[in-house]
């Protein structure tokens, strides 16, 4: 049922959103006459490496910098790239990966290999399912770039502030996944673009029903500043990235 839902909705989404995609493809190409797409290597189910299709929001060859995490003030982001990231337009092209079976509409967000190499034994369960375009963490940390803004080491800050909760939320999804939950997550991911507070209220309500840890619920409210915390399966805060 999940795969059927992925195929139907990803195909429909690509057809419906194609006009918007074509416009931004042209805008990205016009700025530097380079491909409007970025083929991002990511780790998928069972450690399989695949190329995630992204509408390019950065300068060409931005990955040569060696920095994997992106802050809102990253100078690699192009002017049109800021718009692409703000409205999550780079995720439209990932519907192709869903259609091809590399990804699912809903599931833990795929990561780069340098990050999955750091996974604890507990976190490795995240690689037992197809990665997705959205999940709980996509709503809670939709402002990931803003969180990392101004940080001297975005990759380390990601591992200290975001990864601990992002991984836990991914594991909660795996434990409670269902077709109904997938449909709800898709709906509230769209709502989050318009009103994040409403989407966060829904996430917190769902986590409460699922008897999630109080710390995860508190963080998911996003009412207080994030603080360094160990990833699931570890008692130590990441100190080196």
Beta-strand portion reads 5-15%
Unreliably modeled segments: none
Distance between the termini: 39 Å
Give the tally of structural domains.
Answer: 1
- Radius of gyration equals 17 Å
How many helical elements?
Answer: 10
Structural class: mainly alpha
The major beta sheet can be summarized as: 2 strands, antiparallel
| Overall geometry | globular
Q: Strands of the largest sheet, in order across it?
A: 1-2
State the helicity in percent bands: 40-55%
Helix-strand pattern, N to C? HEEHHEHEHHHHHH
Q: Give a count of the beta strands, DSSP E runs of length 2 or more.
A: 4
What does the average pLDDT come to?
93
Structure write-up:
The chain has one domain (2-220). Helices cover 50% and strands 8% of the residues. It has ten helices and four strands. The longest helix has 31 residues, at 2-32. The mean pLDDT is 93.
Keywords:
two-stranded parallel ribbon, single chain, 241 residues, 4 strands, mainly alpha
Q: What secondary-structure arrangement, pairings included, does this model have?
A:
Blueprint: H1 2-32, E1 37-43, E2 49-55, H2 79-86, H3 94-100, E3 104-106, H4 113-116, E4 132-134, H5 136-140, H6 144-148, H7 154-176, H8 179-194, H9 196-209, H10 214-220
Parallel strand pairs: 3-4
Antiparallel strand pairs: 1-2
Helix pairs in contact: 1-3, 8-9, 9-10
């Amino acid at each position: 049922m999940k795969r059927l839902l992925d195929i139907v909705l990803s195909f429909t989404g690509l057809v419906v959103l194609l006009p918007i995609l074509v416009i931004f493809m042209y805008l990205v190409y016009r700025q530097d006459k380079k491909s409007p797409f970025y083929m991002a290597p990511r780790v998928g189910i069972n450690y399989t490496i695949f190329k995630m299709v992204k509408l390019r929001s950065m300068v060409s060859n931005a990955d040569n910098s060696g920095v994997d995490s992106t802050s809102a003030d990253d100078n690699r982001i192009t002017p049109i790239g800021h718009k692409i990231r703000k409205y999550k337009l780079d995720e439209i092209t990932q519907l192709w990966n869903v259609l091809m079976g590399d990804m699912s509409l809903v599931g833990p967000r795929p990561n780069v290999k340098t990050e999955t190499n750091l996974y604890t034994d507990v976190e490795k369960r995240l690689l037992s399912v197809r990665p997705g375009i959205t999940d709980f963490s996509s709503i809670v940390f939709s402002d990931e770039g803003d969180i990392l803004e101004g940080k001297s080491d975005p990759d380390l800050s990601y591992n200290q502030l975001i990864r601990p909760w992002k991984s836990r939320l991914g594991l909660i999804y795996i434990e409670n996944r269902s077709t109904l939950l997938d449909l709800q997550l898709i709906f509230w991911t769209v709502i989050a673009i318009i009103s994040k507070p409403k989407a966060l209220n829904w996430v917190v309500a769902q986590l409460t029903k699922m008897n999630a840890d109080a710390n995860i619920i508190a963080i998911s409210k996003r009412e207080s500043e994030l603080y360094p915390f160990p990833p699931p399966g570890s008692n130590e805060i990441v100190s080196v990235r």
